């Protein structure tokens, strides 16, 4: 029976130049592989060692890329290893099967959102009305499911983020600040629900997960075993649980360590 490995991508397995955290002397920095190009420019990286580990993991387990990215943003990424049979995009709003969104799954997600939380239009209107153009660079709607802002982080008032979180909580939404992006996401829109669906379809005997942000917390709690890096929202909050291992590594070397841990667990006798 297969092992399902559902892992977040950005700042978990792949890293922008700003997130690499290469604190060692230049001559000792790891060799990097570019895995994403956007507008003809390199955007995301992993170490060459991590690339080989991911290839091995894809050969031995059902690896499921699990991301808050839209389908279009996800499809820019060129991960090493075999093409994933499943991928989770839009924080669980789309379940890709051999690269194509499963329409039945998406319809089920939309029905649940309509029942359980305030509409996207209300949240979008609130963001447009309260966010200051001084520190907002972009307003975006993702897949007609959730909203996010691209901001100047150093100008962003912490109090505004706190107030937005409280406002959203009362309407069945959650707020997550990741780098230069503030996400407003409906609470029923979860990575864990999509992971459970993959596990059900594949008959998985074991589920493993990894992630760094608040939007990954439900995924980490849902899996049999999980890992988080030493950076990100969850690390900043010192967040953990019994089946979750908090790793000390930060930046791109954390991605390498996570893949070592996942592959070791997949290969362990059960």
From TrEMBL:
<protein>
    <submittedName>
        <fullName>HAD family hydrolase</fullName>
    </submittedName>
</protein>
<dbReference type="GO" id="GO:0016787">
    <property type="term" value="F:hydrolase activity"/>
</dbReference>
<keyword id="KW-0378">Hydrolase</keyword>
<dbReference type="InterPro" id="IPR024197">
    <property type="entry name" value="TPP-like"/>
</dbReference>
<dbReference type="InterPro" id="IPR023214">
    <property type="entry name" value="HAD_sf"/>
</dbReference>
<dbReference type="InterPro" id="IPR036412">
    <property type="entry name" value="HAD-like_sf"/>
</dbReference>
